[in-house]
UniProtKB/TrEMBL annotation:
Protein's pathway: Steroid metabolism; cholesterol degradation; Lipid metabolism; C21-steroid hormone metabolism
Function of the protein: P450 monooxygenase that plays a major role in cholesterol homeostasis in the brain. By promoting constant cholesterol elimination in neurons, may activate the mevalonate pathway and coordinate the synthesis of new cholesterol and nonsterol isoprenoids involved in synaptic activity and learning.
Pfam families per UniProt: p450
Name of this chain's protein: Cholesterol 24-hydroxylase
Keywords recorded for this protein, A-Z: Cell projection, Cholesterol metabolism, Endoplasmic reticulum, Heme, Iron, Lipid metabolism, Membrane, Metal-binding, Microsome, Monooxygenase, Oxidoreductase, Steroid metabolism, Sterol metabolism, Synapse, Transmembrane, Transmembrane helix
The protein's enzyme class: oxidoreductase
Topology in the lipid bilayer: Single-pass membrane protein
Family, per entry: Belongs to the cytochrome P450 family.
Catalytic activity: testosterone + reduced [NADPH--hemoprotein reductase] + O2 = 2-hydroxytestosterone + oxidized [NADPH--hemoprotein reductase] + H2O + H(+); 4beta-hydroxycholesterol + reduced [NADPH--hemoprotein reductase] + O2 = 4beta,24S-dihydroxycholesterol + oxidized [NADPH--hemoprotein reductase] + H2O + H(+); 7-dehydrocholesterol + reduced [NADPH--hemoprotein reductase] + O2 = cholesta-5,7-dien-3beta,25-diol + oxidized [NADPH--hemoprotein reductase] + H2O + H(+); testosterone + reduced [NADPH--hemoprotein reductase] + O2 = 16beta,17beta-dihydroxyandrost-4-en-3-one + oxidized [NADPH--hemoprotein reductase] + H2O + H(+)
MF GO annotations: cholesterol 24-hydroxylase activity; heme binding; iron ion binding
Gene3D superfamilies: Cytochrome P450
Amino acid sequence: MGIFYGILSWTALFLLFMVLIAFLGFCLYIKYIHMAYDYIPGPPRDNFLLGHVPTFLKALKNDDVIHDKFKEWCETHGSVCRINFLHHVIVLVTCPEGIKEILMSPKYPKDDAYKKIGNLFGVRFLGNGLITAQDHEQWYKQRRIMDPAFSSLYLRGLMDAFNERAEKLMLKLTDVADNQTEASMLKLMNFVTLDVIAKVAFGVDLDHMKDKSVFTKAIALTLKGMIYQIRDIFFKFHPKNQPFIKEVNEACRMLRATGAQWINERKAAMRNGEDVPKDILTQIIRTAGKEGSMTSEDEELMLDNFVTFFIAGQETTANQLAFCILELTRHPEILEKAKIEVDDVIGMKQMISYEDLGKLIYVSQLLKETLRIYPTAPGTTRMLPEDTIIDGINLPKGFVCFFSSYATGRMEKFFKDPMTFDPDRFHPDAPKPYYCYFPFALGPRACLGQNFAQMEAKLIMAKLIQRFDFTLSPGQSFDILDNGTLRPKSGVVCSVRHRNHNN
């Protein structure tokens, strides 16, 4: 028995020795990374091993916007700024020439971080869809299938559906105004954009659902889970987080099951020769059919893109509209200019045409300025396939560059008085921002749904300005909640009144 315990003791000592050797090796490797790349300017590390991870964790814990820290670092340390994430080095780039070079070129792929949102805690989420695909050929095939459905020519034929869904919101706000009550504009914007994406893209009328908030809750859960998975590498190992992870996984499965049901029902209807809506889903299925036989992976990719469009088409536009309303409540002079334009272009008519949208120049400026200060999808990354020089600093092959539209949009060097809400920055005759404004990203991997989002936001905002006045309720703040997308933290609770058109 003594020999047995002796062997166990030696085994334990040997294992401990090996662990210590491995830890020492990791420390030496971290030291090598520091020595090799500390020539790139950057803030002091929080921790030798963890680098700047504690800053990310603190931001998560305090509900801070991490992009504020990015802006601070870039203003202090320059347009190419190093961040240490354990043994990885990420570079913040706010140099317009660097942004142009990398985002506008197809040769810079998305990095491995996008794999982390392909699956959330082991359950497929965005998979290998348009946002997450790293392989160029796989991405290009998907984009080729999706492009026709999101062209301006195709979307203009869906204006009736856009108007119909927006009118549902107007009826709800009419009740709020008639009863002189308050409403969370963020919540209402979430519901209307959910209605729009479901109807315009997938031909589904959510009014028939008993509780359509199940979708908004699932979207919020998955986005929050996405942020924890990306920014907190230890999150999934903590026992107290398991109930939340289970909720996130169930939300992922629900969204994908919904997509599979809607897609399969539409395919069956098309095979049977039934009349089907002339919406985005029909166009995508028809275009995909021209590509030849669909493999099981192609079917999964279509489902990946369903989840992508369902979330992006609802969440980001809702947040943009809510932020715009928030700013208009404290800028009556800007609101008055918007009212004059809306009254001139659409008067009191309910159905807004595609041609009307083109004439709403100032409303477009409003929405662009909103995205400058509050880019609802605030950043993107790319990987360097070869050594690259940006702003005089050599960045080695394999480095990941991060681009924050939030940071550049709020920097004095690019926008005078950046925290002043001024739609005239985007007047047609004003100088165009030079690669420092990219709320939909730039280049070949720019957001496919940009036309859809801009049409939807402009139409809804025009109807709101046409019919209602909003007063921000006491206690509301202008704070931002960073859940991967940016949203107003307080919900933009307003009292709503009918506009007095006699003034």
